[in-house]
Design goal:
The complex is a heterodimer of chains A (497) and B (228). Chain A is α+β, with helices and mostly antiparallel strands. Chain A has helices at residues 13-37, 42-57, 59-77, 91-136, 141-154, 183-190, 231-295, 301-333, 346-355, 380-396, 454-464; strands at 157-165, 168-174, 198-199, 204-210, 213-222, 341-343, 364-368, 375-378, 403-411, 414-421, 468-472, 481-490. Chain A contains eleven helices and twelve strands. Helices cover 41% and strands 23% of the residues of chain B. The chains are: A alpha+beta (497), B alpha/beta (228).
Chain lengths: 497, 228
């Protein structure tokens, strides 16, 4: 990056008046103090004045001060006094004085001008650096544009930025009281060919581009009574803004592509999930039925009965999948009809266990129910579905000898319905996703664990009842899982009859 | 000669399907065992020595194709794959690495049993048979003669090679790739050749080439010649 100095500040009348004041003071002081005491030191007195003017006011005021000092010295202190005529013998002394004063003023002034410019350049660099650091954190084009506007405002301007979106310039960020530009005017600025920046005292129009691509247009106005910042400084700021905007746009595009890919992935997962989980029970049913047709005579009664049982079980399983699929569709389309009653939460839990009786055969089930219960305001059919899903999920993910606890608790206006097991627990990485749609634990390779909808449906329904659902794992010694439904509960007045 | 019962192993992690297939295969006259994982299947294949294996491609511990590859390193036991219809590529891959046949889920038990029968027969007849007959088609491999309904049919060399490859696996599916290799060697990879030559072959041996009864199409996978 090139270091540059801002254009020199224009000469100001104020500085010349100040220079006059300085030399006037020097003259007065010289007249009344120095002359009576040390008349030979008078030139030094004026040199000091020029030096001060140079140090404070820069080169041109200092040179002016030197000339002024020359005339003042000549007028007030050189014979003949109060005239500008010069005696022949004084010419040498006066010329020496003039040269000395000019050198002192010029050199000091230049040095101080230089120092001032360096200081300003440093300030420019710093503000540019801060602006680009600010820009680096912008995550989208709009916020990048806003940051540029903020930086320009900090440098005494108003600014508006139009970014090219889908081929047209759109106003993305503007200072509070930036003049309003008509669309036509922006279009005219944008279509200027060749693209060129314009800068005047009233405003600067700057094109922003990154990697040869046009990104947008910035228009900058000075705030009242202040000048525009240096055009090159603004250019540098807008260049880094253009890069930041371009980058933010790319990030947005990548994120969008990722969302599309994820959706696509989800659809694929849904299809393979559906095809596997709906076909598996169907295959068994069809095989069983065709076996019975083919070998009815060869099978003994027990085998026939077993095959019929398989058909029954698998049909029920298929039905549960379809019920969940339907609930999920209803939940998502908002078509779910909830008819709520005050229900003893032990009832739906018992009903769920009963509904899964066949599936739970041979499993170690423990019921932990309280003697009395507060009631929950739910649709009992749907709450039963939730609990069926929780229990079925537990059965699918635990070994056959695992202990499964169905627990109901109510206290202080909350009802908790939980299904616990002492199985292997849920890997920490999977825990946040267990309620996600189509999520199936165990890297998708565990089979027979259903469609990945059970817990997602459970969460949707519980939330529709104003409750919440949580998974905790492990429970103790790195083992066990608890899935718990938390619902608002209401104390029921004991009926005295 | 009263041969011992043929032994069939079912490999599927879905307990209900095993529960159904087991009695059906027993009723059909086979001795049956089951395995729920790939590693269990490999161990049983070595220890129990089945004559045919019915294999589900989706197993909990490994891909069914890995099981086929591991088996094919040391045995030519017939393998019949169970797979879903849309998993066409999976199915072709399984056949190309050495599976003998497949049955699409959901399936009729009778269909699976027919495949098992074909596989077992093929295993017995592979070595000795010098002739094939199915429907009104007859092939004499030694004299390279093909006749339909007693009338001799003249085939080009490619047509004969294709027909022989199908007849050697009568009743079983033969993939496009396998047919290509049989008639052209591995140099040709465009399966369109196979389609064209099968069309010609049908013109010569089928009664109604538009409605083939001998060479059946297995869409997307290959062809199957009926077994007698």
């Amino acid at each position: 990056m090139t270091l540059w100095l801002r254009d020199e500040t224009p000469l100001r009348w104020r500085d010349f008046i100040l220079a006059t004041v300085v030399i006037s003071i020097a003259s007065l002081f010289g007249f009344y103090v120095v002359q009576p005491l040390w008349p030979s030191k008078l030139p030094l007195m004026f040199f000091a004045g020029v030096l001060i003017a140079g140090y404070r006011l820069g080169m041109w005021p200092a040179l002016y001060a030197a000339l002024l000092a020359f005339f003042a010295f000549n007028f007030f202190f050189e014979e003949p006094r109060y005239t500008l005529t010069i005696d022949a013998e004084d010419v040498f002394a006066l010329v020496t004085f003039l040269i000395g004063a000019l050198l002192v003023g010029g050199l000091t002034g230049r040095l101080s001008d230089h120092a001032r410019r360096l200081k300003r350049a440093l300030a420019d660099m710093t503000s540019l650096f801060e602006a680009s650091r600010d820009l680096a954190t912008a995550v989208d084009p709009k916020s990048a544009a806003e940051r540029v506007v903020r930086s320009l405002e900090a440098n005494g301007c108003r600014c508006a930025i139009w970014l090219i979106e889908n081929g047209t310039h759109t106003l993305c960020a503007a200072s509070a009281r930036a003049p309003v530009l008509q669309e036509a005017e922006i279009a005219a600025l944008a279509s200027a060919n060749p693209v060129h920046d314009e800068a005047s005292a009233e405003r600067a129009v700057l094109h922003m581009s990154s990697g040869g691509r046009n990104v947008g247009i910035a228009v900058v106005w000075p705030r009242r009574k202040s000048a525009l910042p240096d055009v090159r400084w603004m250019r540098a700021l807008l260049d880094s803004a253009a890069v930041a905007i371009d980058r933010a746009r790319l990030i947005a595009e990548i994120a969008e592509a990722r969302v599309v890919a994820e959706k696509e992935g989800l659809r694929t997962a849904l299809l393979s999930s559906l095809s596997h989980d709906l076909r598996t029970p169907l295959s068994t049913i069809l095989a069983s039925a065709t076996s019975l047709l083919e070998y009815e005579q060869k099978f003994d009664a027990a085998t026939r009965r077993d095959l019929l049982t398989v058909i029954q079980d698998e049909s029920e399983r298929l039905n549960r999948y379809l019920a969940n699929l339907l609930e999920m569709t209803r939940l998502e389309s908002g078509a779910l009809q909830v008819s709520r009653y005050l229900v003893d939460p032990r009832e739906p839990m018992s009903a769920a266990l009963r509904r899964l009786e066949r599936r739970l055969a041979g499993r170690n089930i423990v019921r932990v129910f309280p003697a009395t219960c507060e009631h929950v305001n739910v649709d009992p059919v749907l709450l039963e579905q939730v609990l069926v899903n929780l229990i079925e999920n537990t059965v699918a993910h635990t070994p056959p000898d695992a202990r499964i606890v169905a627990r109901v608790e109510t206290a202080a206006g909350r009802a908790r319905l939980a299904v616990e097991d002492d199985g292997n627990g849920i890997p920490a990485a999977d825990l946040p996703h267990v309620f996600d749609k189509f999520f199936r634990g165990g890297g998708d390779r565990r089979r027979g664990s259903g469609i990945g909808l059970g817990l997602a449906v459970a969460r949707g329904l519980v939330e529709a009842f104003g409750g919440s659902i949580h998974a905790t794992s492990p429970l103790r010694d790195g083992h066990g899982t608890r899935i718990e439904v938390d619902l608002p509960a209401h104390a029921i007045q004991g009926t005295s009859e | 000669m009263s041969p011992a019962l043929a032994r069939v192993m079912i490999v599927d992690d879905e307990a209900p399907i095993v529960r159904v297939l087991k009695p059906s295969l027993i009723a059909a006259g086979y001795e049956v065992t089951d395995a729920y994982t790939g590693s269990e299947a490999l161990a049983q294949a070595a220890g129990w020595a089945p004559d045919a294996i019915v294999l589900d491609l989706g197993l909990p511990d490994m891909d069914g194709k890995e099981v086929i590859q591991a088996l094919r390193k040391w045995t030519q036991v017939p393998i019949i794959v169970l797979s879903a219809r849309e998993a066409e590529n999976e199915r072709i891959a399984a056949l190309d690495i050495g599976a003998d046949d497949y049955v699409v889920k959901p399936f009729h038990t009778g269909e699976l049993l027919a495949r098992v029968r074909a596989a077992l027969r093929h295993r017995q007849s592979r070595a000795e048979s010098t002739t094939y007959s199915g429907g009104d088609l007859e092939i004499d491999f030694e004299r390279r003669r093909v006749s339909v309904g007693g009338r001799e049919v003249r085939l080009t060399r490619k047509e004969y090679d294709l027909l022989r490859a199908l007849a050697r696996h009568a009743g079983q599916v033969v993939t496009h790739k396998q047919l290509l290799a049989a008639a052209w060697g591995s140099a040709v990879t465009d399966t369109q050749f196979v389609r064209v030559y099968i069309g010609q072959l049908r013109q010569k041996i089928e009664r109604d080439p538009g409605n083939p009864q001998l060479i059946l199409t297995e869409s997307g996978v290959g062809y199957r010649l009926v077994a007698d």
